[in-house]
Amino acid sequence: MRLPRSGAGWTMAVFGLLALLLGALGLIWPEAQLRMLGFETPAVRAPGDYTGTFLTASSMASFNMGVYYLLAAATEWRPFYRFTVWFRLLTFTVFSIAVLTEVAPGRFFSVAAWEGLGAAATAAGLWWDARRAAAGGTPDAVGAGSGSVPAADTAH
Asked: Beta strands of the chain (E only): which ranges?
């Protein structure tokens, strides 16, 4: 797999790797994942409690999302970067509301914060990359051997 070639690409790679690893953790050791998020981990769950089922689905989604983000970083798929900024901000909003309305425990706000900060970091990376490209940045600064950021991205 290729290393990211831009600031925005690095933000995608970091998020992708963490999403993949946390998804794997949830699949392999679900109790640890629940504890990290501030959820209870009783020794026995009541009939009809589908916490394990939901955690399996969420963990698999996180694992897959990590792969998608790593693929986007490896191919420098900049339209995907821009797309994720808006949807990570939406995720930040929904998760924050879940904590504020006490649907989720307070510790769950760390997930919301991660999404919001990740969106801001990727947006900043996109801005920085476009600025470097407009200023005639070096291939190492913007595209590491693949030239510069595509012209369509310099306006964003």
From this structure: none
Alpha helices in the chain (DSSP H): 7-28, 30-36, 51-75, 78-100, 109-134, 139-142, 151-154
pLDDT (tens, 9 = 90+) of the chain, 156 residues, equals 688 899 999 999 999 999 999 999 999 999 998 888 878 888 888 899 888 889 999 999 999 999 999 999 999 999 999 999 999 999 999 999 999 999 998 988 999 999 999 999 999 999 999 999 888 865 444 444 444 455 445 444
First CA to last CA distance, the chain = 27
pTM above 0.70, yes or no: yes
